[in-house]
Backbone:
């Protein structure tokens, strides 16, 4: 079926055209007509013609102008110009609009049929192409998740060659050379920094994977892996090599919105960790950073750059003791680390360390240095190149397994304590800086975002640690500072109420009065009268 629109101000021309088309093409065509430029445009908006046979000269808006308007909302319409006037200027305008052909009046039956067949053939080719494109797109949408998962699987396990990443980029249309990873973790509920019922949750999200996949793509332009246990790895391509503060804040906020949206849509609880931007070939590290960020905090969303962590555990170390040991060091879990270090010392002793004390020396030194390496990366320490020059001389004079055990446990314990204390110290320093900024700027119109920017922590995470450290939220703390200053000015100065209001960061005297009474129990005037005895 072809929709044909006839535009001519002469009824006889329209009748002739309709007769020729209906006789030649029968019910293959649906025909409608209009006689003025304005009515042609209105008809085209409603009818959306495949073919428009246009008279150039019509009352009101001429055919050329009408075609320009129709092109704006119906770019696929094929135009055929029909006119009794052979004017070059009009022809040039028509050519610019992509007119297929011309018909001169009086109309010639064979010419009309020839031109219409030409237009119909073009429409058929375009319809065929669209159908083919849709079929390809349908097949690609089926295959695309498999390809995306292949890319993420290769990145996480680092089982790729150089050309693999380039091939994935080409197939998936990734133009960026950098990106960051998100770890979407689900569970029935959250206890501390982990999700409960990981196995059961993995079954649930597997059944809702397509729904989750579509939802994630609504919030992020990304590539998504399959469900791995109760986790889904997400790759977000990035044009830049670093994520600035504003972008990081926006990403965290969007991830929080996504977690809430997924919870509402699936009735499953989600947490989302976000790693640093890295080259595509190194995104495995970004994914581990995303997971570590969730381990280091209890928030729904955690960005690694908001936290003093940035390294995963070496996959080459034995899993049964080595990996849990270094995990405990990275978390600053002193009791667990000491327990595992003692078990490993037991293993070394049982492995003939007495007969080969040098092997135990080397292993103890290797593990201690790596534990301190993790301490530097995870605890916000400053690395000193020559800071451990005494280690080798110390360890070489140790002759028994008990001496080596004691030295080993001491170094592991020290690394754990420093990780824990430095994390606490970093949060404390950030809050001290924030409070100092608030105290120096309370008279200005400052916001949570302003203070978060000063300490270089996203508003979401800053708000969380501020309340943990201070026992009150940002607004409560700022209000307290302002009210105390107001009380001081009301008691010890002769300044007007308006001046005091402005000096304390309030632009609206009525709001200042309400806030003061809410926090102090009396209005500013009543407070001043009570203090001065007036």
Residues:
């Amino acid at each position: 079926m072809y929709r044909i629109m006839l535009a001519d101000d002469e009824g006889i021309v329209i009748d002739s055209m309709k007769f020729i088309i209906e006789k030649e093409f029968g019910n293959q065509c649906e025909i409608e007509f209009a006689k003025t430029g304005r009515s042609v445009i209105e008809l085209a908006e409603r009818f959306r013609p495949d073919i428009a046979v246009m008279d150039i000269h019509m009352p009101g808006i001429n055919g050329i102008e009408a075609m320009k308007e129709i092109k704006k909302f119906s770019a696929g319409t094929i135009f055929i110009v029909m006119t009794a006037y052979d004017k070059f200027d009009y022809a040039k305008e028509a050519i610019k609009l992509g007119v297929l052909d011309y018909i001169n009046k009086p109309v010639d039956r064979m010419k009309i049929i020839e031109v219409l067949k030409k237009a119909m053939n073009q429409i058929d080719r375009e319809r065929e192409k669209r159908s083919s494109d849709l079929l390809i797109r349908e097949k690609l949408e089926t295959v695309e998740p498999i390809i995306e998962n292949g890319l993420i699987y290769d990145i996480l396990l680092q089982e790729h060659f150089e050309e693999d990443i380039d091939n994935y980029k080409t197939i998936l249309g990734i133009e960026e050379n950098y990106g960051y990873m998100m770890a979407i973790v689900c569970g029935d509920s959250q206890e501390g920094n982990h999700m409960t019922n990981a196995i059961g949750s993995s079954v649930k999200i597997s059944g809702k994977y397509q729904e989750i996949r579509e939802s994630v793509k609504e919030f992020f332009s990304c590539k998504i892996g399959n469900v791995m246990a109760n986790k889904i790895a997400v790759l977000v391509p990035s044009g830049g090599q670093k994520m600035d503060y504003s972008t990081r804040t926006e990403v965290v906020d969007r991830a929080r919105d996504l977690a809430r949206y997924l919870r509402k849509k699936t009735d499953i609880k989600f947490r989302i960790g976000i790693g640093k931007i890295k080259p595509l070939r190194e995104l495995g590290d970004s994914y581990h950073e995303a997971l570590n960020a969730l381990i280091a905090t209890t928030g729904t969303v955690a960005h690694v750059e908001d936290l003093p962590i940035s390294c995963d555990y070496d996959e080459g170390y034995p899993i049964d003791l080595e990996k849990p040991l270094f995990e405990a060091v990275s978390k600053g879990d002193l009791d667990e680390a000491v327990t595992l270090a003692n078990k490993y010392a037991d293993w070394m002793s049982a492995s003939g360390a007495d007969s080969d004390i040098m092997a135990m020396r080397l292993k103890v030194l290797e593990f201690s240095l790596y534990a301190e390496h993790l301490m530097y990366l995870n605890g916000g320490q400053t690395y000193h190149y020559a800071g451990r020059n005494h280690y080798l001389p110390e360890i070489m004079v140790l002759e028994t397994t008990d001496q080596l055990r004691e030295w080993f446990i001491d170094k592991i314990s020290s690394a754990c304590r420093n990780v824990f204390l430095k994390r606490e110290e970093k949060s404390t320093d950030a809050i001290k800086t924030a409070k100092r900024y608030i105290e120096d700027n309370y008279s200005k119109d400052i916001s949570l975002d302003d203070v978060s920017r000063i300490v270089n922590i996203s508003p979401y995470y800053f708000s969380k640690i501020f309340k943990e450290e201070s026992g009150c939220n940002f607004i409560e703390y700022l209000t307290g500072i302002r009210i105390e200053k107001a009380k001081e000015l009301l008691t010890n100065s002769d300044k007007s109420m308006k001046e005091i209001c402005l000096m304390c960061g309030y632009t609206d005297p009525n709001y200042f009065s309400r806030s003061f009474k809410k926090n102090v129990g009396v209005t500013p005037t009543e407070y001043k009268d009570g203090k001065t005895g007036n």
